[in-house]
Automatic annotation (TrEMBL):
InterPro entries registered for this protein in UniProt: ABC1_TM_sf
Listed transmembrane segments: 39-60, 72-94
UniProt GO molecular function: ATP binding
Protein name: ABC transmembrane type-1 domain-containing protein
Organism: Acetobacter cerevisiae
Gene Ontology CC annotations of this record: plasma membrane
Lineage of producing organism: Bacteria, Pseudomonadati, Pseudomonadota, Alphaproteobacteria, Acetobacterales
Keyword terms of this UniProt record: Membrane, Transmembrane, Transmembrane helix
Subcellular location: Cell membrane
Membrane topology (UniProt): Multi-pass membrane protein
Principal subcellular localisation of the protein: membrane
Amino acid sequence: MSPRNRSPSGPLKQPASVTLSRLLPYLWPRENSGLRWRVVLVLLVLVGGELATLAVPMAYSRVVDRLSHPGSLAMAPVALILGYGLIRLVSAALTNLRA
């Protein structure tokens, strides 16, 4: 046993690849296509939630930029504020789906 794989408490730590190779048959079983679809759906929800979380600050910055220009159309900031609210709603919904 190499000393670098041993934690201070004593047990041998395995590399992440070994752990993942042991879990893969449970996460992606060959005979259960329903579970495979659920795993894909969960991954899509996770990615969608992260994208929505990243989009919120960008949408908010556009709202602030549009409101700072006095000559801009009055409807554009309102539409951006409503879009911001929609993005926040989708972000919260995807976060709840993830949990």
